Amino acid sequence: MRDFRDAYVAPFLTDRDVADAAEMMETFGLAASGEAAARADRSRDQGNHIHFCRWRQIERLIDLLSSQEAVGTVH
Known about the structure:
By secondary structure, this protein is an all-alpha fold. The chain has a domain at 24-66. 61% of the residues lie in helices and 0% in strands. It has 3 helices and no strands. The protein has helices at residues 15-28, 32-45, 49-66. It is globular. The protein starts with 14 loop residues before the first helix and ends in a 9-residue tail after the last helix. The relative contact order is 0.23. The model has no long low-confidence stretch (mean pLDDT 87).
């Protein structure tokens, strides 16, 4: 899991991406982030930059949702 305390980048996601992230977290548990990273790597290796970026954003969302700390500005 990434440490978001130093550099937080808000992911750009669609409703489908959020649903995919939730499904992956349910299916893969703690390995969900790694699975999303593997899918991104496969997409990159196939030359599909659109899906590469999509899976990287889903990976970031899974890491963000898995974090036990508040991220970003807290009011």
